[in-house]
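Q: What would this chain look like folded?
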Amino acid sequence: MVHSLLGRAAWVFGGLAAATTLAFAALVDRAPAPPQAAPAIREIPAEELFAQHCALCHEARAMTASLRAKPDREGTRRETVDFLRGHGEASGEEDVRIVDFLLGPKAR
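A: My prediction, written as structure tokens:
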């Protein structure tokens, strides 16, 4: 009697294990979920970027006057962006936006 009870228990647990394995395999085989769209990040105005990254040590009016006084605006823009690459913690894109802000709309 004990032997038949153990045999039945083995069959039940074996069946449960097989069913669980098949269910797991069916779930794992599914395609991955489509990527979620990243929430839109608010673009910080260039004036705020200057305030965050530059204003502690530099005055905007003085920087603007200094940069705009140079005759080759595009060359000045390029040189200033290159200089800022290793100066401060702003990203490259932020550096370009800060320099464009300082030079004004004629530099674009």
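The chain has a mean pLDDT of 86.
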